[in-house]
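Usage

Read records sequentially. Each one opens with the input sequence:
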Amino acid sequence: MNELREQFEEKATAYLQQKNAFIKKSKIQKKEMEALILLSESEEPIRVGDMAEPLGISHSRVTRLMDALTHHKYATRTTSKHDRRCWMAAISKAGTALVESYDAELNKFFEDTK
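and closes with the structure output:
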């Protein structure tokens, strides 16, 4: 049982290192990547304030995070059609490409570690 646990821990550590290396190479923060993944999983724009809970961060942090993502053109931010006080976030083509590269790299990692 200890050997199985050790193998799991080694693979988990290697996975986290691979994940962190990709994020560092992409010059974005972990929460920014998490936000892009969240946006990529939604077919419709997401209200910016509604992103805080699934990301485990404050509303003000979401605002700063979206500032960074829109600055790098990984996401877009528009006013809501129903309530002009609300901002809506969506992933851009560049953001989609980044998430797809991230997924491909992690899938390759799993294929290589079989």
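Summary fields computed downstream for this record:
- Residues 22 and 105 are 8 Å apart (CA to CA).
- The helical segments are 2-26, 30-40, 52-55, 59-71, 93-112.
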